[in-house]
């Protein structure tokens, strides 16, 4: 999804989740169906959208209609105009296609922990936009419940990627899985970890959000099945990082040693990571000397 409807496609100054659409992701799904694919794994991180996956559904033939019988406009701001969902022209090949969604967060569609409130700001949403987007998604969910008899408000991960999790579940019959589970199964991580003495994992920033389906905690859960200690290394840590210790990360380290800008941190990332790894190794060797 990040390649078709992602943040990297929209310059920061132009990001506006009231307008951005997930249509391109729907086009990718349709292209896969055209190629005869009948099992699809969709990664839904890094989106620039907050349209509840409406654009994706429209690209696959769903009619999301206003009270006047017209397709709603693109973007999260148009969800408030939705009056009727008609799936009579939805791509019929979806019924014979298994779609698994790699979803790294468990956030619901709406509310304080929902798509708009938690992820809207990084997509360019102001406080006023967030309120409007959240209201639109709640209305969207009510129409889905009424017309499709599907509850997306209580769906764990429904708020992922601006509501794409909810849309794939409702319109495509997809199943949501923690992305890390799909990756760990593919890599046979359990077999690799079983005889390990130590596991080192990491991500860009380790904070309280890390416990919500992110890679470090997913790796730690596998390691803890074999009582293997886990160290997390990140570009930065936040004040609330302590919560990760309750989820399998025994120790966490930041690679930053001085106050710097993001550009400076990225430019020196390799050197900083080597220094951190050297210090972690030194601590481990201290234990061996006792």
Automatic annotation (TrEMBL):
GO terms for biological process: organic acid phosphorylation. It holds the Pfam family Gly_kinase. Keywords: Kinase, Transferase. Its EC number is 2.7.1.31. InterPro entries: Glyc_kinase_flavodox-like_fold, Glycerate_kinase, Glycerate_kinase_sf. Residues 1-20 are annotated as: Disordered. GO terms for molecular function: glycerate kinase activity. It is an enzyme of class 2 (transferase). Gene3D superfamilies: Glycerate kinase, domain 2. Signal peptide: none annotated. PANTHER family: GLYCERATE 2-KINASE, GLYCERATE KINASE. This is Glycerate kinase. It comes from Klebsiella pneumoniae.
